[in-house]
Batch of 4 targets.
Target 1
Amino acid sequence: MASKVVVVSGGVIGSAVAYFLRAADPNVQVTVIKRDPTYARSLSALSALSAASIRQQFSTPLSVRMSLFGIEFLRSIGERLEVNGARPSIDLHEGGYLFLATPAGAPTLAENHALQRSLGADACKVHAARFVIARLDARTRRPPDHREKCRVKEG
């Protein structure tokens, strides 16, 4: 006999619970109850509709790994959640972060960077502030798209 589960609220957590229950056991019957079954504009869809960022720059291996898992899940959400040929799109736009440190904090920043890189995070270390300023997009005054790899020597 298949298990039956009802998840009340289809926000990020409720939807994740439903998804991973089915991924772990395809025989479980999961029903998600939410006000907007299309997920288009409901309050519980705000996390997908927001301009929130997903960073990978943490100081513990577990936090870095969880973030890497999360961003990979979001990058492949269309394939993962495809139903009868219909692929959802969350219009994911990946940005970046700039972490600055004083001379006293630089060793901690370097240690965190080494950890992040060792775990596969897409993080660049830049030593000169003038390089960062020069790299701002002239039109938007923002850093360039994160997918453009750093052109500075790691060190």
Note: Residues 130-134, 151-155 have pLDDT under 50 and may be disordered.
Target 2
Amino acid sequence: MNNCAVCNKKECETREAIFEGVLIKACSNCIALGKAVEIKPKEIEEKILELQKEEENEMIVPDFSSRIKNARLKLNWTEEDLANKMYDRIITIRNLESNKLVPTFRMAKNIEKILSIKLIDTFKAYYVNPETHKPSLNLKDGTLKIGDLLNIKEKRKV
């Protein structure tokens, strides 16, 4: 017996269902009223596998400013030379090289092309299932977050 995630009915029989795109446990009343759509075990496995697929994302490298400056100096270009090649202002180049301005992806791609350097890096993100992955609270490292306190409060209720 669980609580319904839709109507919050206590100690009722729940089944796995999808509610607004999220996998939850809902009571038969909420499923019957169409608030949640019940899914079968095979569909659950397919949805979880779909969510667990890796996702490629892009980000600007953290040391973009030094990469830009080093590449510019290697070509013996002034800030003005690079600004002219980019069709931009000198102040933009100065702000990029001093880390006061983070380039947009469009700008980074343009700089990559002009200076023949890598400013955009791809990384893979994975879905972590909160039901199977429960991080343990470690107070030895001195980092306590709000989520840790909520987990403690939730454990005390049980």
Note: The mean pLDDT is 76.
Target 3
Amino acid sequence: MGKKIIFSILLLLSFGFSAKAQEYLDSIKSQSTQMVNAFSKGDYGKLLEFTHPSIIKIMGGKETATRLLDTALHQLKESGITVEEAKVGDIIQSLKSNDTIQCMLPQYLKMKMGDKFYSSKNYLLGISYNNGKRWYFIDTNGGTEESIRKMIPEISKEIVFLEAEKSFN
């Protein structure tokens, strides 16, 4: 009888942990998708909502960052470059520390340049400071691993930075 009670408690606890993990996985998928959709549409106000605060600070604050991104978008459009597709894949690394949840997930980008296409598979580092409710993202292709870790020192040493894959055809 005692073994059944212990087993039942352990089973209930495991379902609780599993449900919590699924909740933060759903949250990161939803928020990372919102972020890449904002990028595709040129909605840089929305994009910056998901950008890590350290990156926004380095860019000179939210207003300056928005102007910089708007200028970059305008230059892309003038060059005839369009975003054809932007999406995120499934989480490939994940860890929880006392203060954060961190994960790495692929970001796929396809841009049209005249009659040619540029495709890339970059990696986004996601960090949540409130148990997966709110996520911030860093494109790990935007700098060296050393520079990114210096900007955001709470990145776990266990997180493995992966090389981007690019093609032009």
Note: The longest strand covers residues 101-113.
Target 4
Amino acid sequence: MKKELLTFIRYDAWATGLMIDAYRKADSPPQKALDILSHIISSKNIWYYRLIGDPCPVKIWEDFKPDDLKKELKKITALWLDFLRPMKDDDVYTEITYKNNAGVEFTTPLFQIVFHIHSHSSYHRGQVMTLIRPHIKDVPVMDYIVFNRL
């Protein structure tokens, strides 16, 4: 299962990177698209910092600049990969206790958190595509199966 979680993290970074590229090539993209791309990256940060128990350096709706999106994505992806790589396969079932943004405490297995990040990002990439589609010429292909063929 650890191998699959690492693949999800890499896929998510690849697909989000393609979406960032499409956003940056768009003709006058809506601000909401940038807000959501920033949120995707912020969410990855929030979950990572919950896991390690440190305060998160970004807000849930952080205002990243378009030029910083790829750098921030690369940084948080590296942190996630470095966190997961040394684990044993069974470690992904470890129960993680954390507090959500409202301060409510929950306990969730690590693998479910990674699945959540994966589906959360996919959902929001769909929102961004809906917003920028009228402003772009080339639609990126971000399918998971395509990523696995690379």
Note: The CA atoms of residues 38 and 64 lie 6 Å apart.
